[in-house]
Amino acid sequence: MQAAEIRTFLDTAARFAKKEIAPMVGTEGRDGRLEKLPALMDSAADIGLLASPDPKSAGYDYGVWGRASLSEGPGLSVGILQEVAASCAGVAACMHFAGLGAAELEQPAKAAKTVAVALFEDSWRLETAALNSPPPFCLRISHEENKIILTGEKSLAPAAPDCNGYVVYGSGNSGWERVFVPAGAAGLSIIDSGLRTGLAALKVASLNFDRVALAADYGLPGRDPSAFLRRLFLGIAAIAAGNADAAVCEAVAYAKDRYQGKTKIINHAAVQILLGDAASRVSAAKAHLAAVCEQDRDDASSLFRAAAAKLRVTLDCWQAVTDSLQTLGGYGYMEDYRLEKRLRDAMSLKVMAVRPDDLRMFCAGFKAGEGQ
Amino acid sequence: MTDKLSPAAASQQLGLIGKMLYDVELNTIWERDTRTLPWNFRWLRRKYRAFAQAEIAPLSLSADRDPHSFDVKPLFIKSGLKGFQTEFFVPPFGTGSFRMLSYSLLLPSILKAEEFCAACGGVGLSLLAHELGMAPLFISGSLKAIFGWMFPIYREIRRGEPSIAAFAITEPGAGSDVEETEGAAKANLNCRAKKVAGGWRISGRKCFISDGAVAKWVTLFAAEEGKGVESWTCYLLDKSMSGFSVGRSERKMGQRAADASELILEDVFVPDERVIGKPGAGWAINRNVLNYSRPVVGAIALGIARGAFESALAFCKQARLANKPLIEYQDVQLALADMLMKLTAMRAIAWHAAMHRYSFQAAGAMAKAFCGDASWEICNASMDLLGNHGFLQSNKAEKAARDARLCQIYEGTNQINRLAIFEGQLGSDF
């Protein structure tokens, strides 16, 4: 896709976000009118923003984490997620996790419209060694006659609300193995996480596999989770950046409009320091993200850069959102102005998937392994 | 081998005095800190904690999830009967400790705020806001207010009535303005009082008033028609007054159990005897109330952060990673240690503010701003530590973070509080 085409596509995403998503978020209710979400996701799929494993779908190539992202790089997907997150980080997260699922399937899975990926577990943490072979305690995938058997647990896998299947990573005889598991498979319990801080549009559930038995053709070509992780980290960082960028814009608009001591608050030093810091953090985060997308390859260095981007961008954007909220004082804390929703989403993005200290140690593992 | 080198084992090699000087007990910082207090305050601190754990903690998650179904009044009555809502004065007028007269007026409120808010920031605030509502009666220094209003309200509470007071200064167009002098001088005040025969007629709106919907009494500040904040006067209103109503109850990010409401005044007649202090003394009362309330907000922030730390600690002891409890990992210990160091620093600054016989602006502002910021950091670190579990409501860390965020905003934003440290003190060498 040429630069002009990319711009046009991103403009489409921005228009869709403003016209369709922003009204859904609105000002009523803690997280907007979530009952409208399924229809919204269908609209996103219709205009090609949402990737699908179905080659006939509009977003098969250029939707978020569509096939083109494998050959042309993650820039377009990251751009779409930023545009959508400017209106709602939760909806952007739904598109992100649906796209990640689609990218895992080499061909349309049986009766699966929207797929999520289940990798993480509470019993192990992500280390660089896990890229070569699954960690001990990982969910076990075994083969008995013509069946694939899954036994174990996956912790808090995020998914779009209409998710009807999971690509599950587990430990098999030959290292990492992947299996497509329909949501209704016998022996699979899907336990909803309950109320969460933010990203309320997402469905987050723990998965319990009690000897789930599937036909052999549910198995997918085995591979380590590097490519998935790269996309996962970049997408979360993109959503954080889009969310924070919009938060800063909203805080600036407020500061230009409101007075304290008969002076517009934008002219107060305290507010300028808050907003200047927030704007510079978001600017750096976006530049960081763009540079990582530019250098993205299917290699270990790219995974390191994506992990570092998730760590830094989500932290900086969380700080930018909380500073933006502070600009509004008491109004920022109230649901009406929606900055508190942005902050709750930013808090969630910072801790989700891999916690900050684990990411730091993961990044250190890469640096320690360089040159070996 | 390492067992023999542990401090407890190694200390056995010392003589009697050496053993006495070497404290190797398991860390119970709460208990050790308590022992540094005079015995009356030790007893109070334990009493506050017992009440908070028995009565407040069980309500925490449900009150946050569904604040509009939560009614603070039964809990207020219980805390009132325990003597926790009438502590500005010693017996026979109130239930305060005699020791506070010689040691610290503020310390009981600081201790109470930490314990209540460690159990729940929202429910804790709802119970603590009453003292803020009562403070102008005391701080005005008016014997008429103290004997005529404060003590009768205390009697109602001790009889088991939900005689809750709220403090109303914030207006829709004047939030930070009423927290600092320069802004106040130019403030666009909306709540106006007009002198009439036998009293005043007040019209206008107040917003974000803690306990505004549940309070029976409101200490409300209004400027005279056509005048600025120098005419601000404190009035004691009650909800039965004609023209006085409650508007919308705010939907907040955190501290959701604590009501924050809009108060609407439409030509409310307030008799002269309801003027607290002198007419025009409102600004002075307000500023000094803030001097005493800001350290308490610091302690609220401290309590919320302690609650977050305790939930993170419990999680790390219970959750296992590769067959080992999380707490055994050094990275987890590093994160918890950071949180604990900050908590201890917060408690030090809050207690330090209380050590002054009379609170003053810089002490109050420093305690409030430092603790507000540190609480937000600790609660977020607690969420970070829990990872994917950190943003689940059931683990309490995320609620603590949402609750903590308000401590950087109310009682003057932390920016306003930083400026308050220097306000009128540019000639000081500190």
Architecture overview:
- The complex is a heterodimer of chains A (about 375) and B (about 425).
- Chain A is an alpha+beta fold and about 375 residues long.
- Chain A folds into 3 domains: about 5-105, Acyl-CoA dehydrogenase/oxidase, N-terminal domain (Butyryl-Coa Dehydrogenase, subunit A, domain 1), CATH 1.10.540; about 115-220, Butyryl-CoA Dehydrogenase, subunit A, domain 2 (Beta Barrel); about 225-370, Butyryl-CoA Dehydrogenase, subunit A, domain 3.
- In chain A, about 50% of the residues lie in helices and about 15% in strands.
- Chain A is built from 11 helices and 10 strands.
- Chain A has helices spanning about 5-25, 35-45, 65-70, 75-85, 90-105, 225-255, 270-295, 300-325, 330-335, 340-350, 355-370, and strands at about 115-120, 140-145, 145-160, 165-170, 175-180, 190, 205-215, 220, 260, 265.
- In chain A, the strands form 3 sheets. Chain A has a 4-stranded mixed β-sheet with strand order 1-4-5-8, with helices on one face.
- In chain A, β4 and β5 form a beta hairpin.
- In chain A, α1 packs parallel to α4, α4 (about 75-85) runs parallel beside α6 (about 225-255) and α8 (about 300-325) packs antiparallel against α10.
- Chain A is globular.
- Chain A starts with a helix and ends with a helix.
- The model of chain A has no long low-confidence stretch (mean pLDDT about 95).
- By secondary structure, chain B is an alpha+beta fold.
- In chain B, about 50% of the residues lie in helices and about 15% in strands.
- Chain B has helices at about 1-5, 5-10, 15-20, 30-35, 40-55, 60-65, 75-80, 100, 105-120, 120-140, 145-160, 180-185, 280-320, 330-355, 360-385, 395-405, 415-420; strands at about 165-170, 190-195, 200-210, 215-225, 235-240, 245-250, 260-270, 275, 320, 325.
- In chain B, the strands form 2 sheets. In chain B, strands 1, 2, 3, 4, 5, 6, 7 and 8 form an 8-stranded mixed β-sheet that branches. Chain B has a two-stranded antiparallel sheet with strand order 9-10.
- In chain B, α9 (about 105-120) packs across α13 (about 280-320) and α13 runs antiparallel to α16.
- The radius of gyration of chain B is 23 Å and the shape is globular.
- Classes of the chains: A alpha+beta (about 375), B alpha+beta (about 425).
- At the A-B interface, β9, α7, α8, α9 and α10 of A face α12, β9, α14, α15 and α16 of B.
